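P.,

For your records, the input lines for the assembly:
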Amino acid sequence: MTIRDLTDKLGCRMAAGTEKMLDREITGVYCCDLLSHAMAKLDPGNVWITIHTNLNVVAVASLADAACVVVAESIEIEEQSLARANEKQVLMLSSAKTAAELSFEIISMLRKA
Amino acid sequence: MRYPGAWVLDMGQVIIRDYDIPADDFLAAGEASSAVRKLLSQLGVAPDRIKRTAIAMYEAEINAVIHGHGGKAHVEISGDRITIVISDEGPGIEDLELAMQEGYSTAPDSIREMGFGAGMGLPNMKKHADELVINTEKGKGTVVTITVYFK
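Structure tokens returned:
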């Protein structure tokens, strides 16, 4: 399952990154707002669901080589974070759904895939 | 693969890198870890070893930004290991034993709002480094030495 499959189904909006990045295969999903936990638990290719939008989210996603960050509840992402994400080639998506809804739907999709 | 097993460099060859860690600068926070991650990746180090290094180093780097008024990172890569020394001239750690406990944090609210301050920094370093040495003195600063083997 690629990120594109996920964005099509969940109706996510692309906030930062390029179309090409949507073709990356998803290896799993992780949901947490504590950066130390995310850093330690995210595996390469994971989707990371969070409600944080600050610069450190981009740093953690980049270091952990996450497939993308999904910001839940359509929380506005700071301009400097978007600029940084584009620079660091971190794909950031935005969704109106809650973190719990996103987690449930992504896990269900991964199980079916 | 240029080198067999866990060796990424020729015998006796050492790569040294030094980075500045600016104080209270979250734009630059993680830059040193990111550069080291890229370097290890280019050297062909195993992904799980890179991940361990990146986690331990990022936590130390962030601690220097948040608590240490910034500092320096000195990195040495030799044949089978990476050693990272993160030093700051901050306030030092008052009770190291307490600081090593998961969940204990002295981070202010402004830092917690960014997603830090979970009290996982030092425990994360301990968990992911093969060796962790912390020298700290109240009022003088802290030196964290992280070693990860490429085994």
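Two observations worth noting. Chain A has one domain: 3-112. The first strand of chain A starts at residue 13 and ends at 16.

Regards
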